[in-house]
Amino acid sequence: MQVLVRDNNVDQALRVLKKKMQREGLFREMKARSAFEKPSEKRVREKAEAVRRLRKLARKKMQREGLLPMPKKAAVRTR
């Protein structure tokens, strides 16, 4: 993973790096690897993640079909 530092602005580069790592799921993986997870706990977690993904897909499909209102757009922040 690579982040460019512009105008010696290390703080901004760190924010960008953290955001990229978050999107890649790196923090979640580091937390999972920090301690042993029992196989039964792993099954429960993976099942819950699958249910969450399916519900999200179903919600998006219903929004596209007009059965649910579309989510509100996030306000754009300007400097």
From TrEMBL:
Signal peptide: none annotated. GO terms for molecular function: structural constituent of ribosome. The keyword Transmembrane does not apply. One of its GO terms (cellular component) is ribosome. GO terms for biological process: translation. It comes from the Bacteria. It holds the Pfam family Ribosomal_S21. InterPro entries: Ribosomal_bS21, Ribosomal_bS21_sf. Keywords: Ribonucleoprotein, Ribosomal protein. Belongs to the bacterial ribosomal protein bS21 family. PANTHER family: MITOCHONDRIAL 28S RIBOSOMAL PROTEIN S21, SMALL RIBOSOMAL SUBUNIT PROTEIN BS21M. This is Small ribosomal subunit protein bS21.
